[in-house]
Specification:
The protein contains three helices and no strands. The relative contact order is 0.07. The chain has helices spanning 2-24, 27-34, 40-51. By secondary structure, the chain is an all-alpha fold. 83% of the residues lie in helices and 0% in strands. The longest helix has 23 residues, at 2-24. It has one domain (2-51).
């Protein structure tokens, strides 16, 4: 009985996370975060801070 309740809670948590990631979050947010490593302006700021 207890293992069934724990399994159901775990499944509900998983479904909630999937819904939040793929439905609630906006595509623009993911695109912006995906481009962060490629941001040239951010790289230039990092080089300036290291050389100081």
């Amino acid at each position: 009985m207890t293992s069934g309740i724990v399994t159901a809670i775990a499944m509900l948590c998983f479904v909630a996370i999937v819904v939040w990631v793929f439905i609630v979050k906006k595509k623009e947010d993911f695109d912006e975060q995906a481009n962060l490593p490629l941001d040239e302006e951010g790289k230039e700021k990092g080089k300036e801070e290291k050389s100081s």
